[in-house]
Structure formats: C-alpha cells, structure tokens
Specification:
It is built from 10 helices and 28 strands. The protein is α+β, with helices and mostly antiparallel strands. The longest helix has 30 residues.
Amino acid sequence: MMKRITALMLAALLILSCGVSFAADGTSNVYQGYTFDFFGNIKSTPAAFTLSQIINSDSLGSNYVFGTVSDVCTASDGRIFVVDSNPDASRVFVFNADGSLATVCTPEGVEIARMNPIGTIKMPHKDADKAAQGRTANVTVDANGNYDPTSKTTTSLKGCEGVFFHEKANELYIADTGNNRIVVLDGTTFLFKRFIYRPDNMTGTTEFKPSKIVVDNADRIYVVVQSSYEGIIELNEDGSFSRYFGVNEPTVNLLDFFWKSIATDAQKEKMGKTYAPAFSNVALDGEGFVMAVTSDSASADKVFRLNFAGANVLREMGNTLVVGDIRSDKPSAFTDIAVKPYGTYAVLDKTNGRIFLYNFDGELLTVFGSLGNIAGQFRTPTGIAWLGDKLVVADRGLKCVYIFEPTAFGQALLDACEDYYDGNWEEATAHFEEVLRLCGNLETAYTGIGKNLLMQEEYEEAMRYFKLGNNREFYSRAYKGYRTIVMKENFGIIAVIAVAAIGAVLWSEVAYHRKQRRLSK
C-alpha cells in the first residue's frame, strides 16, 4: 500500500514539474483558446495555433546574438525579416521560412553565400554628400548590381524599430529611428538604394523619427512616429510630404468637457490640453486600406481601417466590439496588427500577451496566448506578421521570434473566412461546419453559416443559424428576405383577404349610415 501511495505521489510531482498540461485534442493548454458569447461570457475553444518553431540566438550561429527584437515582417517568398534594435548594434536579420539564415543573392537571384545581418550600409561615393545633407539619395547599379568600387562611404543603423518589405518594387524599408531616416534597400541583393529624411515641405511639429512603415501599391509611404498626436505621416513615392493621415480621436471626459465649456479664455490656457492618442503600428489589407492599432488607453478606438479620407471604417458586426479583452482587469493594448488578403486580421496585445483573431466583419474568431516562461508564451510581444497561414510573433523580452502554425480548428477557421470573402458560399459553409464539429459553442461559426445561407437566399435556414449565433442584426436581414418571399408566394391569398377586409369595412360603414338615417326619421 505504501509503495502504491509513493508511486502516485511521484507521478503527481512529475506532472507538476512538466509545467504544461494538455487539452483533449492533444495540444498544449498553453495554446488553448477562448472567445466571448453574446452576453460577454467566456467560451473555451480548441487551440487554433500551436508553436512550430523558435528563432533565437541559437539560430544565428556563433557570430551573433539577438539583442532587442522589436519588429518582424515577411515576404511572399517566405523570407522573414527581424529587427534587432539594440542601440549598440542595430541590425536586420533575414531568415528563410524554415528559420535558417538567408543567403546573399545576385540581381538574377543566384545564391552566393550566407548573408550577414544588415547593420552597416555602404553608400556610393557620389551620393554621400546628398545623404549627409539630409536629402533623398537615389542611386543606380550596373548590370551586375555593383556600385562604384572606389566608394568607401558607410553608415550604420541606429536604434531601428521597424521593417517592411514592398513586394511591388522589391524593396526593403527600414525605420532607422535613431538616425531620423528611412533606409531603402534592394529586396534581392540588399544593396543601398536611397535614404528618406524629413521632407523639406513637411509641416507640423512632429519629429521625423520613423518607427513603423508600410508602402501601398501606389508607392505611398505611411510612417508611424511614436508619441505623435498629428497622425500617421503620408509621404509620396519620392519621399516628399503629402499629409498627416488618420488622426486618432481621444475619449471624451464629460466632466472636463463641462468645465472647459464654462471656463474663461484665461482659465482654458491653464488647463491641460487634450492631444490625439498616438498610433502604435500600421499595416495594409488586401483592398489597399491602411489598418492601424493603438496601445493608448485614452483612444476611443483600438483598431482602425482608414479610408482615403482618413476616417475609420472598420466593420464591427460581431457580438463584441474590436477592443480585445472585455473580461480582463487590464484592458488590451495593441502593439501590432497583421492582415490577410481576405481581411482576416490578428492583433497583438502586449498587456496580456494575447493574440485576437477577427474576420473581415470584425467578428471575434478566437483568442490565444498568455504571459509566462513556457515555450509559446510571451513576455513582451512587439510584432506580428502572417507567413502564409502561419503567424510569426516577435518578443522583445524573450529575444526570440515564434512561428505558430494553425491546427485543424484554426485552418478550418481561416479557410471558411477566405471562402466567404471570395464568395464561395458552399465551400465556406462546409468549413464552418467543420469548425462546429471541433467547437460546438462558437457563435461566430453559426453566424458564418447563416451569412453563407443568406447570400444563397435561403432565408429561413439562415434565420435558424443566426438565432444560434445570437446575431440579431443579421437575423433581421434574413427575416426581411424571408418575409418578402412569403408575401410573394401567398400574394393571391393576401390580396383576397385584404379586399375582403376592405369590403367588410365599407359594408359596415354603409350599413351604419343607413341605420342612422332610419332612426333620424
């Protein structure tokens, strides 16, 4: 008996020492997800993503180590660009999709050797003076991609915080924050192309210290400057200033508003000014809209989809608003956003170490992630990007990059959203049915099936699924369609009843007036 008790105690200690429990589907509970129902209650979901790979100092060989991992982006060919913003040695590392260091290529794409991190920029001698004067330096290379061999002018990155790969032009943009400039390199050879400094025609008081960058297909450059209350800086292709874009509105304190409304001009001067909250990061969706996030708690919105006029047109048609956690004591503070071509986006919450996955309509699909020291948990998450259907997440505190791959549940969610966006209603319905097979309490999946049925004008069945998904707005849409069909199918009967009712009313009036005339005689 004593041996049996001892064995049980040892087994319990072994389980506790592992620190990782497992869900019913075999995945670690580190990745266990959840969502919110219509009433704001937390509903658990299976793991949508699990950790498949870690890129850290061990991935760099013996010559380099990660210092401060501040941002990550990807290219369509699978390359991963990681920013190390270490003030002493800022660099951009380039990895292949498998986590190995990328190789240097010729302009024709021929691999030469394993490449070193991008930290020192070699400039052509003829443009060194332009660069020093703070003007954009445009250069060309010969057929072999070589610069002037006599050039010895170099410059180093300093405190860089962001990186973006521009697919259309095959260019790599680096936010060289400490040097108050943007560095543009060739996307194949990583040879220097130009600098972008503060434009001469730039207005406002914002200091030009680029932190995050994206470039759209019209070659407009959108720059986020941390702590700027004037909005995102929009630059033209040549680096000249265009405008401030998408000013973020602060929440309104009614008490402060009241006092300022009755205060004198002298009193208003002494009161603190209310500035627009700053954006944290920026991305592009498949339709060319700029999407942005903020970690400022004073902001009225947390996630933005900005149209050309800079207005927020984000769709929020789910049972909860796109604000992250609604049940946590610590409100979500979004530090980055990654968007799929079909509008599904993942936002990174640095406060609670969570990733929130929303579809194009702003409906919450799932939430996963946590703070901790177990592999797959976060300490200070800083950047997120899509690598196909995988998620790549940079963590400053852990000095690493995680690559998460979708589970069967996560893949079904992504496929369902993509097919719905593309108008493949039957395929989308099949994927959502697979989602419900794996997680029967996901209201978004019921709504997804309902929306696909709605697009196929199967209104009565759509109403049933919208009711299961507690989606009242779409239920009303389906009901209107159903009511129209019922009225068309029964128009003859409805018309006869209506005519009979009108006739009965008229006959009643005639009979009443006849009776009144008889009585008056």
